Amino acid sequence: MKKLPQKNGYIALMSSIIIALILLGLAFSVSSSGYFYRFNVLNNEFKRVGLGLAESCVNSALLKMAQNYTYAPAVGGDIVPVGSQTCNIKSVTYGPEDPVTHQKTATIETQAQYRGSFSNMDIHATVRNPTIAPIVPPPPNITIGAWNEASTSP
């Protein structure tokens, strides 16, 4: 019987193991980035829904201000149902009324939470006193000056 040399195939075996490990690492990194990208897209969708809820609260607050010139939410805020979700009118603060134009500025702060995503809105509007006889043609009761997403934390 002939004795085979001991060192044949060692380099080929080690090369194939190293190449397999490199390919395995590459496949893992590509699949994990896709996995985390899915959650980023999902969080963006939750944020969009939360912003829609917060904007619904702003519209509700504007309606209440148009119906009641001195509207102010309760101390903890007014909870507004929007479909199966809710949002919160946190505060409505007024500046002093201008004696000439009979208008005052209002700042509306709302907040909505949807699946862990908080959305805050900060609106500045001018509200006209409806008890004063309007000029012809009458100006609008409420004029929106700024409509922004606030960057405050919950």
How does the SSE layout of this entry go?
Elements: H1 10-67, E1 78-82, E2 85-94, E3 103-114, E4 117-128, E5 142-150
Antiparallel strand pairs: 1-2, 2-3, 3-4, 4-5
Provide a brief overview of the structure.
This protein is an alpha+beta fold and 154 residues long. Helix content is 38%, strand content 31%.
- Give the H and E element order: HEEEEE
Helix content, binned percent: 25-40%
What is the number of helices?
1
Distance between the termini: 82 Å
What number of structural domains do the residues give?
1
Q: Which term fits the overall shape?
A: rod-shaped
Structure description:
The structure is a single chain. The chain has one domain (10-150). 38% of the residues lie in helices and 31% in strands. The chain is α+β, with helices and mostly antiparallel strands and 154 residues long.
List the main descriptive attributes of the protein structure presented here.
154 residues, 31% strand, alpha+beta, single chain, 5-stranded antiparallel beta sheet
